[in-house]
Amino acid sequence: MKLEKEQLSRIPIWAQFSSVTIEFWTEKGLSYIASAVGTPLYADSETEKWKRLSYARICVEVDVGDELLQTVDVAYANGAIATVKVRYPWKPSSCSKCWVLGHSDAQCKVKGDSGDVQSLIR
After folding, report:
1. C-alpha neighbours within 13 Å on the C-beta side of residue 42
2. In which band, very low, low, confident or very high, does the pLDDT at 106 lie, cut at 50, 70 and 90?
């Protein structure tokens, strides 16, 4: 048997969206906003039941190498634009050299482009 560590390219994380206007506080509206960050998966129960209106908490799937947005501009049907703030309670540490989760660039064993990424993953 040969065990290999699978390299993740996408990961689910929770995103908190604040300053969401009531027009967008629907399943379709929140999905529209969350899709700017990643692929919306589901909302937490407080968001679904309108128990906490200070922010919407939605689990989104994001690419490991993508930079996480801090704001999202939302366009209304009349052309007006509103800015929604995005906060992440937890962000995975990731490395831009080898794209592996769990360590930062400073802790990476791959130095520059000459390192063997496959040997680190296995």
Report:
1. 4
2. confident
Distance between CA atoms of residues 62 and 67, nearest Å: 9
CA 23 to chain centre: 23
For residue 9, the 8-state DSSP code is: S
What is the pLDDT at residue 5? 65
For the chain, the maximum distance between any two Cα atoms, rounded to a whole number of angstroms, is 60
- Look at the alpha carbons of 96, 99, 103, 106 in this order and tell me if their dihedral is positive or negative: negative
Sheet holding 39-43, edge to edge: 39-43, 55-63, 10-18, 81-87, 71-75
